[in-house]
Automatic annotation (TrEMBL):
SUPFAM superfamilies: Metalloproteases ('zincins'), catalytic domain. This is M57 family metalloprotease. InterPro entries: MetalloPept_cat_dom_sf, Pept_M10_metallopeptidase, Pept_M10A, Peptidase_Metallo. Residues 34-180 form the Peptidase metallopeptidase domain. Keywords: Hydrolase, Metal-binding, Metalloprotease, Protease, Zinc.
Length: 186
C-alpha cells in the first residue's frame, strides 16, 4: 500500500511538471503577426465549393469567432471582402501545400481583400482527416487576420500544422494585432 502511494505521488508530480512546463513553453512562444491588417477586427466572407468544404470552413469560422477577438461575417456574392474556396491544383509551388491565403492591398497598410484556397487534391493525397482539414482552414483564416507562421509546436499557425487547433497564444496575437498600429508587427 505504501509503495502504491509513492508511485501515485511520483506520477502526480511528474504529470504536474509536464503540464507546467507545457504552459511555460506556450507562454514563451508568441504567435507573430505582420505589419498589415484589416481596418477593424472583422471581415465579410463568401464560401464556395462542395457542401463538405463549406462545412470545413464553417467549423473553422465558428472556432475563430468564439475567441471574441475577430469576427467573420457572412457576406453576399456582391459584397464581401474574403473568398473561401477550394482548388485541386498541385503544380509548381503548391505541390505539397494543404492551403494557401492571398491577401490584397494593403492600402496604407490595410488589407482590402483576401482569398483562401484549400487544396483538395493534396488534402486527399496526404490523408488529411476532417479534423486535420479544419485545422488547416483555421490556419489559413489566421493568415487572413494578419497572423504569420509560428514556431510554437501547439500553434494553429505552425507552418506544417494539421494537428493543432487555435491556441491561447494565437488568440492573444490576434488581440495584439488589432491593438497595434498598422505598419508595426510583432
Amino acid at each position: 500500500m505504501k509503495r502504491e502511494r509513492i508511485r501515485l505521488g511520483v506520477l502526480v508530480l511528474a504529470t504536474t511538471l509536464v503540464l507546467n512546463i507545457g504552459v511555460v513553453a506556450e507562454a514563451s512562444s508568441a504567435t507573430p503577426f505582420g505589419a498589415s491588417r484589416w481596418r477593424e477586427p472583422r471581415v465579410t466572407y463568401v464560401v464556395s465549393g462542395s457542401r463538405y468544404y463549406r462545412n470545413i470552413y464553417a467549423t473553422a469560422i465558428r472556432a475563430w469567432n468564439s475567441t471574441g477577438q475577430f469576427r467573420f461575417i457572412q457576406g453576399s456574392n456582391a459584397h464581401h471582402q474574403v473568398t473561401l474556396t477550394t482548388s485541386n491544383s498541385t503544380t509548381g509551388q503548391y505541390h505539397m501545400l494543404a492551403g494557401i491565403t492571398f491577401t490584397y492591398g494593403p492600402q496604407k497598410g490595410y488589407y482590402n481583400q483576401a482569398k483562401v484556397l484549400l487544396l483538395t487534391r493534396n488534402l486527399a493525397t496526404y490523408h488529411y482527416t476532417t479534423s486535420n482539414q479544419i485545422h488547416v482552414a483555421e490556419h489559413e483564416l489566421g493568415h487572413v487576420m494578419g497572423l504569420q507562421h509560428s514556431t510554437a509546436r501547439n500553434s494553429v499557425m505552425l507552418a506544417d500544422n494539421r494537428y493543432n487547433g487555435i491556441s491561447r497564444n494565437d488568440i492573444t496575437a490576434v488581440k495584439k494585432r488589432y491593438h497595434t498600429p498598422v505598419g508595426r508587427h510583432s
